[in-house]
Each structure stands twice: as structure tokens, then as C-alpha cells.
Amino acid sequence: MSDDATRPAPDGDRVPLEPPSAADSVGAALGNAARRAGLDPAAHGSTGAAVWSAMGGVRGILESVLPSLAFVVLFTLTIDPETRQGNLWLSLGVSVGLAVVFTLARLIAKSPPSAAIGGLLATAGAAVLALVTGRGQDNFVFGFFTNGAYGTAFLVSALIGWPLIGLAAGYLLGEGTRWRTDRRKRLAYTWLSLAWAALFAARLIVQLPLYFAGDVTALGTLKIVMGLPLFAPMLAVTWLVVRSLSPRRES
């Protein structure tokens, strides 16, 4: 066994290090994802700067909003009164085309393309599903599964006493899972995780009836309204609470 996997023992021998717990591994994964998204307490001194970085700035906002907005506008303008369906090929083609442009722009600028590539794959996959079924509302199906998965993860983590916000914050602030011994922090992280679960649940509660009703225009509009406009304030509140509980702030 290599020295990297051992530690000194009192008698001078070396004994194996304990493997990281599942909570530490999850916290590290979440913390690294948050850091890649721009949420690093050591890098931002203000809430506005942190939220702006997490959204990707102007480019990130355009990448998030424009493909969906283009689809909704073009689909609505080309709706046939008899079939109540718009021109899927045109609206989906422009939507996917914009996602391709954003991805190529990141590659040319040699900036991290992961967000744009993820958006491109999601947009293209949703477009294929909508074209196969011939129903515009199916362009939003993948979003329902994403919101359901995220909402369930936040809810379950809070209910079992290991809120995801706490795991990520503990990693970013260098305190691991010690926050669980502090009742104030544990409650704060639990309520924050429940708030995120409520956000994802609200999207499903509002948007699913519109999906089953086949109202593509209203569904697409509410998807945009309940996207960044709700994400940014929730992220700001989360950041403020986590920073207020930071060990460095306490010291």
C-alpha cells in the first residue's frame, strides 16, 4: 500500500487511512459543482457577484433563455387555428440552432463549454421528442423530469437529516460535516433545502396542467418566468444564509 493511503501510528508503523464517508463524497461532488458554477466563498465578496457568476453573466443568461424564448415565439406566431399546433420544424430548428451557436461561441473563445453543451444536448433531445410525437408541449418533457429529480433529492436529503445545501456548504467552507453538531446551522441548511425542493415542486404544479391541456404558449412562457427569475433570488438567499453561517464570519 502506498504512503498516500496510510498514516503514522503511535508505534511508528503505518496504518490504512479511513475511506471518506458517503456524506463527504457527496459534499465534495456538490461543492466542486458549485465552485465550477462560480459559487466560491473565497472568490466573491458580494452576493450580487456570486449570483451573477453562477448564472454565467450575460452569456449564461442568453444561453438559458433565448432557445426557449425563440421556440415559444415562433410556435405561437405559426399556430394553425384548426390543429392548434405551430410550425414545429421552424420553431425547434431555430431553438436548436441558437444552442449550437452558443456552444460554438464557447469553443471558439476557449471558455468552459460544459454549460452550453449540456444545454445543447437537452434542447436537441427535447426537440427530437417533440418532432417524433408531433406535439409542441413535448418539447418541455425533459424539464419535468429534471425538476422532479432535483426536487426529490432536496426533499429527501432534508427529511433524512443530511440536507444537500449543508453538504455543499460544509465542503466549500472547509468544515466537512461538522455543521451537523450545530443546531442553528443544521436547521438553516434543512430549511434552505426544503425551499429549493418547494421551488422545483412549484414548477411542476404550475406547468404540468398546461402540458396536459396542450397550451404550449402558456407553458413555454411560464417555463421562462419560473426559470432564472425565481432561480436568482433563491440563490441569493441561499448564499446570504451560508455566508452568515461561515466559520470565518463567526471567527
From TrEMBL:
<protein>
    <recommendedName>
        <fullName>DUF3159 domain-containing protein</fullName>
    </recommendedName>
</protein>
<feature type="transmembrane region" description="Helical">
    <location>
        <begin position="186"/>
        <end position="206"/>
    </location>
</feature>
<feature type="transmembrane region" description="Helical">
    <location>
        <begin position="153"/>
        <end position="174"/>
    </location>
</feature>
<dbReference type="Pfam" id="PF11361">
    <property type="entry name" value="DUF3159"/>
</dbReference>
<feature type="transmembrane region" description="Helical">
    <location>
        <begin position="60"/>
        <end position="77"/>
    </location>
</feature>
<keyword id="KW-0472">Membrane</keyword>
<keyword id="KW-0812">Transmembrane</keyword>
<feature type="region of interest" description="Disordered">
    <location>
        <begin position="1"/>
        <end position="23"/>
    </location>
</feature>
<feature type="compositionally biased region" description="Basic and acidic residues">
    <location>
        <begin position="1"/>
        <end position="16"/>
    </location>
</feature>
<dbReference type="InterPro" id="IPR016566">
    <property type="entry name" value="UCP010219"/>
</dbReference>
<feature type="transmembrane region" description="Helical">
    <location>
        <begin position="218"/>
        <end position="242"/>
    </location>
</feature>
<keyword id="KW-1133">Transmembrane helix</keyword>
<feature type="transmembrane region" description="Helical">
    <location>
        <begin position="89"/>
        <end position="108"/>
    </location>
</feature>
<feature type="transmembrane region" description="Helical">
    <location>
        <begin position="115"/>
        <end position="133"/>
    </location>
</feature>
